[in-house]
Structures are given as C-alpha cells and as structure tokens.
Write a structure and sequence with these properties.
The chain is globular. It is α/β, with parallel strands linked by helices and about 270 residues long. Strands 1, 2, 3, 4, 5, 6, 7, 8 and 9 form a 9-stranded parallel sheet that branches. The longest helix has 18 residues, at about 185-200. It has 11 helices and 9 strands. Helix 3 (about 35-45) links the parallel strand 1 (about 25-30) and strand 2 (about 50-55).
Length: about 270
C-alpha cells in the first residue's frame, strides 16, 4: 500500500504541476465610468479582471453593475489629491478636509459604486504620503468592511500604516501597464508582470481602459502561459502576506500535494 501511495503521489505531482507551481496574476483596470464601450470590452475578456470605478463618473452605477453581474470584482477608485497640478475629479480627498467631510465623500462613493468590495487610490501622491490624512480615509472606510489596494503613486506611501489602525487589509500594486500609451511598451510591462509573478508567486497589475491597453490585454490573455493563473484581486487578500517573500521548498510542494491527494481520495497519508 505504501508503494502504491508513493507512486500515486508522484503521478499526481507530475500531472498537476500547474496546481503546485501556477503563479497568480491580478489585473486591475482603473478609471471606469467614462468610456462605456472600452470598459465593456475589458469586462468581457474575463470575470477575473478587476475593475475600479470613479464614483462621480457618469456611468459609475451602470458599469459597476454590469461588471458584478459578469462575476468581476469591483473597487471604488477613490480620487485623492496629487503632488502636481492636474485636473481633479469631483470630491477629490484633500489633506485639509476634516473627518466629517472625508466620511461624506467615502459614504457617497460607496453609494455610487454598488457591489464594491474594496477601494484604491486615483492619483493621490500627496494624500497617500500623509499619515494623518490617510488615517481619516481608513477610519471612514472601516465602516464598510473593505480592503484597500495601494496604487503606489509615490514611494513613501503611508497607506499600509494608516490601514493597520483599523485592521484593513492592504494589497500593493507591482506594475503599471500603460504609463506609456504605446502597445510595445504595454506589452513589455505585461511581460514584466508575468516575470514578477513567477519570481514572487503573485503580481498585481494596474492599467487603464485605453485602446492600446485593450489590444494588448486581448492578445496576452489569449496566450497566457500555463504556469500563470489570472485571479480576482479578492483572492489575494490572504495570499499576499504569506507568500510575497516566501521561497517555495520541496516540503511546501509535498505538503500541497499531500493535502490535495487526501481531498480527492479521502485517504489519509501517514507521516513516517
């Protein structure tokens, strides 16, 4: 019996290498709510693409509902003040705002983006680098059982520290797809994300509903490597803290396979 189990174990490992080795890739597309045709194309690519909706955009409720009905995760793309002078969305969060004003803006955003399970920052390099300002934001968000995705528009972000005061889970963007709106550049960024996913076990990508981005996503997702798994952002809430800096060992691999064998066979493998 022992030999049979060992043989079965080896065969299972060989046939299910993707189960053991598949790296996770999460794609988040920001700025939804303005370009309905482009946005619906992206949603149609996969229910595992996450969308982030600007709460005061004209199509916010409609596109969030369409995405949810397709199975996509929905985020609130919360506008925050940047360092530079740029056109700002209505109800952009400023450092000078008191708690009542921040609460009003967050409450309005939650109401305008139905089915949202989390939030991420739209711009916000000034806001997200200020701990006091972000504590106000996280306090307001803590009423809604959401996680936060740090778009990481500045290196000295205070998002994770502020979120820790309210036990809000935080994920962090690894790659921007389309800082350069050229297909060749976007393609290279997608390949970089795949490389990072293989190295770290997971990678989070942020893009925007530009025509060039849509073209590259269509090509790349149709030919996604077998060792890369496209996942919803919500699937990474518990995965990232444990796996980002974790090196996979043979013990890990055998442990996963053993658990899987026991799940599908109802047979308990005894340790020696």
């Amino acid at each position: 019996m022992r030999r049979f189990i060992n043989l079965f174990f080896i065969i299972f490992l060989a046939l299910n290498s993707n189960y053991v080795w598949a790296a996770k890739l999460a794609i988040v597309i920001d700025d939804f709510g303005y370009r309905q045709h482009n946005e619906e194309q992206i949603i149609s690519f996969s229910p595992n693409i996450t969308i982030a909706v600007l709460p005061n955009s004209p199509n916010a409720k409609r596109i969030a509902t369409i995405a949810h009905n397709n199975g996509n995760d929905v985020l609130i793309h919360l506008p925050m003040v940047p360092l530079g002078k740029q056109p700002l969305e209505k109800d952009t969060l400023f450092l000078s705002m008191d708690e009542a004003e921040v609460n009003r803006i967050v409450k309005n955003a939650v109401e305008r983006v139905p089915y949202a399970i989390g939030a991420n920052n739209h711009m916000g390099s000034l806001m997200t680098s200020d701990l006091t300002g972000m504590i106000k934001v996280m306090k307001a968000l803590s009423q809604y059982s959401m996680f936060f995705l740090d778009s990481k528009t500045i290196g000295k972000t205070q998002i994770k520290k502020a979120a820790s005061y309210y036990n809000i889970p935080v994920l962090t963007r690894d790659v921007f797809l389309d800082a350069q709106q050229k297909e060749s550049a976007i393609s290279l960024q997608f390949d970089l994300a795949v490389k990072l996913a293989r190295k770290n076990g997971v990678a989070i990508v942020i893009g925007h509903p530009h025509p060039q981005t849509i073209n590259i996503l269509k090509q790349k997702l149709a030919n996604l490597p077998s060792d890369i798994e496209l996942v919803k952002i919500s699937q990474l809430i518990t995965a990232i803290p444990a796996s980002v800096n974790h090196k996979t060992t043979l013990k890990d691999i055998f442990g996963k396979c053993k658990k899987r064998i026991e799940e599908i066979s109802n047979f308990k493998i005894e340790e020696e």
